[in-house]
Specification:
Elements (H helix, E strand, L loop, with lengths): L2 H27 L3 H5 L7 E3 L5 E3 L3 E6 L12 E8 L2 E12 L4 E5 L6 E9 L3 E3 L3 E4 L1
Parallel strand pairs: 2-9
Antiparallel strand pairs: 1-3, 3-6, 4-5, 4-7, 7-8, 7-9
Length: 136
């Protein structure tokens, strides 16, 4: 490579580095007021709770405490999943609902009977119910 080409390459690299540095300084100084004001919200699941028995095909209202939500929640849209013990299942009981509703009606799916089921309420974070039972 000739010294002329090396000089042009060095200038291009210098200009690129300078522009990157300027961009980085601007990005670092930019206010993130909306993001800074948002809070992760993990309302505790109230129902189902320990001792609850659901039967396949029934409908139930899963409920959670919405008495003290933060002013700005990072993600108000939630999903409700079913777990068996510590293992997630592919079963979505409800999806894309407003977490501030405090309850959502679900139909008990056809699953293997057990006393170690958990509902997982999550939007930007997750909260689990206590273990409960599903029977035929």
């Amino acid at each position: 490579m000739s010294s002329h080409n090396s000089s042009i390459l060095a200038k291009c690299i210098f200009v690129f580095a300078a522009l990157f540095g300027i961009f980085f300084q601007i990005a670092a100084a930019a206010p993130f007021s909306e993001l800074e004001k948002r809070s992760v919200y993990t309302p505790p699941v109230l129902y189902p709770h320990a001792g609850t028995v659901w039967y396949k095909g029934q409908t139930h209202n899963v409920t959670w405490d919405v008495s003290s939500p933060p002013a700005n929640i990072t993600n108000r849209f939630a999903n409700l999943m079913l777990r068996k013990g510590e293992l997630p299942t592919p079963l979505i009981l409800a999806e894309d609902f407003d977490i501030l509703l405090g309850r959502i009606e679900v139909t008990v799916p056809w699953v293997v009977e057990g006393n170690d089921y958990i509902v997982n309420l999550f939007g930007d974070s997750g909260d689990w119910s206590e273990e409960f039972t599903i029977k035929e």
